[in-house]
Amino acid sequence: MIEVQRVSKSFVSKDIGTVTALKTVDLTIGDNEFFTLLGPSGCGKTTLLRLIGGFEMPTTGMIRIDGVDVAALPPQKRPVNTVFQSYALFPHMTVGENVAFGLRMLGRPAQEIAAQVAAALEMVRLGGFANRRPAQLSGGQQQRVALARALVPKPSVLLLDEPLSALDLKLRKEMQGELKRLQRETGITFVLVTHDQEEALAMSDRIAVLHDGSMLQVGRPAEIYHDPSCRFVADFIGEANLIPGPVLGRRSELTIAVRPERVVLGAGYGRPSGRAKGRVAAVTFLGLDTLYEIELAGHGPIRARIRGDEDGFSRGDSVVVDWAADAERELLH
């Protein structure tokens, strides 16, 4: 559905000269795919989204949507709609009028508009809200109206620019499920921008991790989590213990990445096996899991996440740290 070929974007600033927001990127996003652009602030993910949507023009490269070169087309000429972080609802219009706005701009007949608006509001579970104003709605309800308005013209691609960041944690979790449901039901390609790793892992078919204007890794959530391509990805996606190679007898240019849930703890220094010895520095009970912070000799802390271990080790206990061979990834610096 989307092909990005050798695309870059630079801006000229009076204060600091030319700034490269996005280095040369190649990317293919499939039809009916929930794809996420993930990375910290300033990594280039929003710039790439805006380039796909037509809000910015690329400095170099080509963008195709459904086989058509759109790099020079304005947003209204592309088969794309966007849901912004701010929702951007018209406060003087009712919910129904907000959802109908795009269809009216397209010149659709009134009867068709009424039917499609009703169907769109049912789809986002706001069937009885057509006559309310945005100010009468909660944040989650306003987000659903923005989604209905963007989906009702049936675009080929829906762009989502951090749409859940203004919601509280419980509502954000609920809306993650709603977005995934809507994507499955409509069959539209969704492209989400977020800095929330958990959100990306929970919702996406595939994820692209960006950093400093470059795309570091593209893959399914499990691939990126279990097999990170570099130190940054390992550290940014979930939790990871990053251990210098020499601590474990490896080459100096290597970093060993091990997820906390793969770390095993044994009691005392007398245990015959184990990769390192340490002492429990902190214990945090998290409900289903207990998080241990272990101070290793010759290295800083390493974290172990143990399922259902609230009655396990205590602060100050001596422990042996171990993990299975397939739990570690060797990463170059």
UniProtKB/TrEMBL annotation:
InterPro entries: AAA+_ATPase, ABC_SmlMolc_Importer, ABC_transporter-like_ATP-bd, ABC_transporter-like_CS, Mo/tungstate-bd_C_term_dom, P-loop_NTPase, Transp-assoc_OB_typ2. Keywords: ATP-binding, Nucleotide-binding, Transport. The keyword Ubl conjugation does not apply. One of its GO terms (molecular function) is ATP binding. The keyword Transport applies. Gene3D superfamilies: 2.40.50.100, P-loop containing nucleotide triphosphate hydrolases. SUPFAM superfamilies: MOP-like, P-loop containing nucleoside triphosphate hydrolases. Signal peptide: none annotated. Residues 2-237 form the ABC transporter domain. Pfam families: ABC_tran, TOBE_2. This is Spermidine/putrescine transport system ATP-binding protein.
